[in-house]
Amino acid sequence: MPYVLKHKTTNQIYTCLLKNHYNLVYYGVKYWEEEDAALSERPAFLAEQGIADADQWAVVPLEENRMKLCNVKTKNNPDLIVSITDEGQIVAGPRPVQT
Fold it and tell me: Distance between CA atoms of 68 and 94, rounded to whole angstroms?
């Protein structure tokens, strides 16, 4: 089962530019196949991404089909983010404007 980063307050799933196995760049959910790898690589990954509130991002399991649905909802568009509601629904919306 894939492991992803979920923001503790907003329930946002972490998305960014990634490369697929064909070496093509796409925008989607950052994930790890193993929980241990996710836990050990999380701090360095978030630091590389310039994330200031790294302690707010938790490693959580997410079924592969739901992770793929998150990727579909982003529409390969970095202006969109995905979140999982308290009821478990996956929703996409515009990225908040940073001031």
Answer: 19
Section 7-27 average pLDDT: 95
Can you give the pLDDT at residue 6?
A: 97
Question: What's the whole-model pTM score?
Answer: 0.92
Provide the domain limits for residue 56: 3-94
Contact 57, 42 (CB under 8 A): yes
Based on the structure, what is the number of domains in the chain? 1
Is 27 inside a domain boundary?
Answer: yes
Q: Write the DSSP assignment of 16-63 as a string of letters.
A: EEEE-TTS-EEEEE-EESSHHHHHHHHHHHHHHTT-TTGGGEEEEE--
What 3-state DSSP class applies to 29? strand
pLDDT in tens, 65-80: 999 999 999 999 999 9
- Token pair belonging to 78: 């970095």
Cα gap 79→40, rounded to integer Å? 28
| Tokens 């972490």 found at | 14
d(CA 37, CA 39): 5
